[in-house]
Write a structure and sequence with these properties.
The chain is mostly helical and 133 residues long. 82% of the residues lie in helices and 0% in strands. 29% of the residues are buried.
Length: 133
């Protein structure tokens, strides 16, 4: 079975749960998880930081999982972005979409991790080759 299809089948019920929730339920969920703007976009920052550190420390083993990570990142980002837009059009309040925005930011953070690891590993290797000449 295709990985995108599996991810879509798993995330679709969760998306419907958020979409069909009333504003009070979403507010209770946001309050119970403590979500705010900082926490919503925090996974992107962690993806960049950890990816950069992994690249500088020459931790190349993570690239074995880059394809699966990209699939997961694409699915999470798509699900989160579409869910956020759907919740906005349903309730007309952006902050009610924070849970799905967090899911989208998690997808972007996963992608950023693999991208930063690869970029900094290449840059570190290129700089090392230039110094040895």
């Amino acid at each position: 079975m295709n990985i995108q299809r599996v991810i879509a089948l798993v995330t679709a019920p969760v998306g419907l749960l958020f979409l069909l929730s009333d504003p009070q339920s979403l507010l209770r969920f946001i309050a119970s998880t403590g979500l705010n703007w900082y926490q919503v976009f925090n996974p992107i920052a962690w993806g960049i930081i950890l990816g950069t550190a992994a690249g500088l420390l020459r931790f190349h083993q993570v690239q074995k999982f880059a394809v699966w990570g990209t699939y997961a990142a694409t699915a999470l980002t798509t699900f989160g972005a579409v869910g956020t837009i759907a919740i906005y059009f349903e309730h007309r309040l952006w902050y009610l979409g924070w849970p799905t925005m967090w899911v989208a930011a998690l997808g972007i953070g996963i992608y950023s991790f693999f991208l930063m690891q690869l970029r900094f590993a290449e840059k570190f290797q290129k700089d090392s080759e230039d110094d040895s000449e």
